[in-house]
């Protein structure tokens, strides 16, 4: 019944759809810029409050080397922190789902740790790990860790009770139940969490750079804030946000590639 | 007179099940009693809500009776379940939506210490048996209701449990397919000697398949009587045209109606 | 109470002061003037809005939420002006910057030359000050190992840095060091910057001069009173802001007074346009003006100082 | 069939369970304290790096009035920010689910806004709102907004396709579909999001107090950092974390009260 | 010769449905054609997977035919749906798990501009009709499979659509309950004059209920023939014992088997 021409057609339609989505996203961001420009012009917002997008655009072009060379450290910290935080969160979530007691005892501890302000832990981390990548990755990990923990704990429990009974009758081990059922049931929650974590890990990396660093977009942001280099400040934030948006979007893309069996809701 | 008693596959010793809800208790099964022999084909017939599914779920160790004892193959139901001696076709097909038809049938081979186990019939052959050759790659949401049910049947047959619990397995199938699968099931049962506990709403199906039929009543679920079906094996579909068959069916019908 | 000339029930004019940071001995004179009723005598009812690590006082003043701001240091004023913020400095409390480089006696930094090759822990706001120090003394940024840290002195204690930077009034931190710790202030290192700079919008400078003059007079009185009655002033400060540690603030008060009244000076608030010019030169050399460098009279005005000259001279 | 004695029994069992859960949670937090104590003792950590729990405990007792009086402003900011952020997020999520195009265009904008570091917006907020409660609530709202948006958008789409068909045949309006179906389907996602938001709003309120304040736990944290009062610093963080933990737990409690129809997974 | 043609309730004009999947296309329904009159009781009989559910879903505007035309009550299916003239009992009971049995039955009264509408029979009465009096407050997961299906039936009857589509509504019910509900359905049909399109796997049920029965074949789903059931109305259960009935059933069975 499989029909190559048809499959090709489906694929090309999907590609067109993806293209449209990207265009719409760009339109949205473009709209934001236009709105920004309009607000600045119409209300005559002083440049020292919000610079005009034209100035910031010029800064983006002029300082592109500076911005790019500072993007990499931040990107590395964010991605590494994202990985570490999510691996930890997923690991803990798996523990929690299999040992109710552990969940009840450790979840408050996780909440507790999560609420320690970064500014307060950063100095301790710097003392322990020095000022290299490590403390930044840890901070980015700490920030992206919690949403994933909460969501995945919930997701791993979002299993159809009938599927649980099926697995029980098949005498599946907890491990098998996990890999054959829970994992799939948790995917919507997991991907939501990863999207949240993608953005928070970028935030985490930026914040971490306030302490103990001399490179990265966070460092640029702080410096340009204190030096009143408003257009550089905005340019740095824009680069960071664009990176976060791409990171976020790539999680969405991975979700589409992984979850192939779902009935998609009609528009 | 000495009778060598056949060994018991499932012993339900005056079991009762009460569910507690936020609003009060529901007595789903009241003092049900029967012994099912190894190798027997035993059916449950009764009005909707009389506790048939609950009964199967007790045998499969999915529900604990609030009263009475259950033993399966001489031990606890939980042990039998853990030894993977129990197979179950659920009333709802319960397919995993992220697995294709074929992958769903393969599931029992991948879990429960059965990895790499060879089934007597291959998953593909079983899908063909239930009329789904060519649809191996379809996901559950792409299948019709009856097709999903047939995948679930194939899944239950892919390993060879000692005790097979079937909860209205052919309910969503047309008569032709149903007849065919009835015959296939009987063949498999005879060839393998497994014990089958079968829930159905079709009196004809119960008579055609079973050696004994338990007739139940509802509110609360109670055993009314157990009826022997002395039709000789192997049976073929035309046995349904015999007077003995019609008589048995009528008798069961009267039993169900409580007359 | 920032719009126009709101007066309260006692007929006093409400004035809000945006502090440069959490209120501490940097506002010793103002708190004293409040306590002693000096502002009241001038017809003002002054209240202090605390700042914080992420507060830029110029934003608060430009936004019209406070009437007068206190800037941490002169660059925050002239860089803000160069960005177009319509503000001007009219008084300076600390004649040199109480920002210092602190080190331990066995690895001391007494002169700029000593800092070469050292690991220097600065907080985010201080990086630029360190850069200024290096540039003014002919060194490159790469001659030191800069580590940005949070405000705590711990890295110096644990040996992770050789030099810690901060305000000399941060007694809470500094008291952790051995008695004979080494201090090198910005001024000693050849960077002449002002600190605790009072500024207002150009508009208030035009339309509200009397208030600013009254404020300056009363503040000066407060600072003089605090100089003479330091213990009393610190006590009042600490009881008003109960999370301050009175002992530490007492030590810090002595220090800050040295910056407000350097070398027995008997004048409060003076500032020199030439010094402003010099400070901007430094920043210009560092390439920190994105926009055209403003002229001095855009950055500061001596009018208030001149009009309040008498009140700003000690009455000893 | 309802049976009062039985209902009472079920209730009392539930109460016992809740009590046990609280005990386990306390045990978990207690374990954290013991671990802290052990690490400090065994490794001989200097008090100025990490104070001993005994000192911090003493500080908690001694400064209880100071801590409590500073808890309220932070709690108010956190709760107000939580409300505002979640109302906004849920509103946007509803828009996104009903207008696919809006989602595609505005989601990147939301990601973009989410990644703006607080330090960078702080000056603008101060210019516009001064340093009162408003900027703090806005910052807490900004921080709690995003996870809810992501989760609720996903949750509102997690509707069984068959239920969608049912509502379509009943010719239900979008509004009805929303209130009768989507809302319920989204609840697991919503409550996960609210749990995440509960903790982030507390973080947000703490960080917001960096923007200038004379009260609140964030103020205490800055103040005690400035004064190098390490045990007060820790005590303030502990009070903030305890508040966050309670906030988190009360969302869990509300979930239990709202979602009464779910089959709970057996332990 | 003049015949006054009865108005058409559902016109399926050579419709085909092709589903596209990642693996290729599935022709679910091929060139199906029939006209169903207003007030008719029309049944679909055919092997599992022949497109019966798909057909109902076309009429309810849940699936668009890839070829051919559908009209319902003289207009587009979507218009009829929006005018709330279509009722549907799904093959799966499709209850909302957060609503009790009673609340599920009340759902149609709360949506689609029907707020405050009074149904001919109250939701409570309908639950009693399907044998669920006393279980109004139970949540779906506390009900047996057959009970859930009965709730879905009650839900479909609570408003009075012009066209009622029923997809194996009695499939999970025991014969006694099924017989009773068959009679009730016929009574309601006669009293209200609604059009019913009914999918079943039971030949006897099709004959007992319908005026016409469409027999379909699978792979792809095609209409084989439409059989008239000239049994007079009102019908009672004992009509099944008549020779005419048996003959019709046998004829349909042969049709299904493709003989
Ligand atoms: N989890 C539960 N909570 C409360 N009551 C339940 C639960 N499960 C089943 N029941 C009740 O127990 C009774 C028996 O249910 P069961 O599913 O065993 O019936 P059944 O004989 O299989 O019916 P059917 O033929 O309709 O499938 C019913 O009244 C049902 O409402
Ligand atoms: N969404 C879908 N995607 C792909 N194929 C589908 C989809 N829905 C139905 N089909 C296919 O269309 C055919 C007809 O399905 P349909 O559900 O109409 O059958 P049916 O006659 O109702 O069968 P049953 O009696 O088993 O319910 C089947 O082959 C099925 O696999
Ligand atoms: C460059 C520099 N800027 C800010 C601070 C933070 N800070 C600590 S004490 C103090 C003055 C209080 O009035 C300030 C602003 C610092 N240490 N160094
Ligand atoms: Mg059942
Ligand atoms: Mg179907």
Automatic annotation (TrEMBL), chains A, D:
Record bears the keyword Transport: yes
Main location: membrane
Xref: Gene3D superfamilies: MetI-like
Top-rank taxon, per record: Bacteria
All residue ranges annotated as the ABC transmembrane type-1 domain in the record: 71-255
Keywords per UniProt: Cell membrane, Membrane, Transmembrane, Transmembrane helix, Transport
Pfam families reported for this sequence: BPD_transp_1 (PF00528)
Annotated signal sequence range: none
Location of this chain's protein in the cell: Cell membrane
InterPro entries, per database record: MetI-like, MetI-like_sf
One cellular-component annotation, GO: plasma membrane
PANTHER family associated with the record: ABC TRANSPORTER PERMEASE PROTEIN HI_0355-RELATED (PTHR30151:SF20), ALKANE SULFONATE ABC TRANSPORTER-RELATED, MEMBRANE SUBUNIT (PTHR30151)
Name recorded for this polypeptide: NitT/TauT family transport system permease protein
Record organism: Janibacter cremeus
Organism taxonomic ancestry: Bacteria, Bacillati, Actinomycetota, Actinomycetes, Micrococcales
TrEMBL record, chains B, E:
GO molecular function annotations of the record: ATP binding; ATP hydrolysis activity
Xref: Pfam families: ABC_tran
PANTHER family cross-referenced by the UniProt entry: ALIPHATIC SULFONATES IMPORT ATP-BINDING PROTEIN SSUB, TAURINE IMPORT ATP-BINDING PROTEIN-RELATED
UniProt entry tagged with the keyword Transport: yes
UniProt name for this protein: NitT/TauT family transport system ATP-binding protein
Superkingdom assignment: Bacteria
InterPro entries: AAA+_ATPase, ABC_transporter-like_ATP-bd, ABC_transporter-like_CS, ABC_transporter_ATP-bind, P-loop_NTPase
Keyword terms of this UniProt record: ATP-binding, Nucleotide-binding, Transport
Organism for this UniProt entry: Janibacter cremeus
CDD domains, per database record: ABC_NrtD_SsuB_transporters
Keyword Oxidoreductase among UniProt keywords: no
Domain ABC transporter: 10-239
